[in-house]
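sorry for the late reply, my laptop died twice this morning and i had to redo everyting from scratch. anyway the thing you sent over, i finally got around to it. pasting the sequence first so we're on the same page, its 302 residues, then the predicted structure underneath. double check i copied it right bc i was rushing
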Amino acid sequence: MRHWLTYPLVRHPFNPRFVEGDTLVRFAQAAEAAGFSGLAFTDHPAPSAKWLDAGGHDALDPFAALSFVAGVTTTLRLIPNIVVLPYRNPFLVAKAAATIDALSGGRFTLSVATGYLRSEYRALGVDFERRNELFDEALDVLRGVWTTDDFRYEGTGFTAGGVSANPKPAHVPIWIGGNSALTRRRVARVADGWNPFPAPALLARTARTPVLEGLDDLRPMLEHLWTEADAAGRDPAAIDVSFTTGLPGAGSPDFSADATLAAVADLAAAGVTWCSTGVPDDSPDAAVEALERYGTEVIARQ
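ok and here's the structure:
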């Protein structure tokens, strides 16, 4: 099992120390030293004040933040969690991802999804109702321009008459986020990983996604993913799956390393290959202390 986490800029208002460069350097290097395999940043370029006040969160630009992290680490995989793919022209996403991958020595993983915030779509001038169409054509463009010179594509609102974009990555893994059957069919056909997110009933309604509270909900979804992978002629073992134990993280007084290790083993038995955890977002000191504890008590013992 590999372990990863999202940078603790996950509420509003945020602690301003988490957007200081020195804090990010310290956090990223502590995560790497603790044995984490990946660090992630969320993607919200234009969140509404209403959403933020209702429990949403602020965000750094994931491409800029991950570029910064690439320069101060050597092994961490650099993962946006997640890029809302229809927000941007896919050629811009392809260039940003390929650049970070090249400069980091091949450490970039592009985790993408369709998103659910209508207000953010409106602010960016993108048609929310066409998000699935835009998402699928973006996947075509990413794989095409990363592997082909004189790449041609007629898209929604753009025409590529023969694009040769360099550097071309050897391989940028694409994970697709989301809990729907459509997402799993996409993963089975074209992606390297599935990145669903825990969604209790209230969040599931807000995000317009199927409920996914724990392993009992995940297991039938995984069975569907493996069935779709077989139908697509792919080896299910070649597809990464990320999920979480759902247990209190190492910064919580209720944290139990033994319970976490047992839950990680259950996830692995079900086919999960990456486990995410959380750390406190009230102070950098508390966050780093939790990283170190999780590394010592969980990652080093599995």
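The chain has a mean pLDDT of 96.
thats about all i looked at so far, will dig more tmrw
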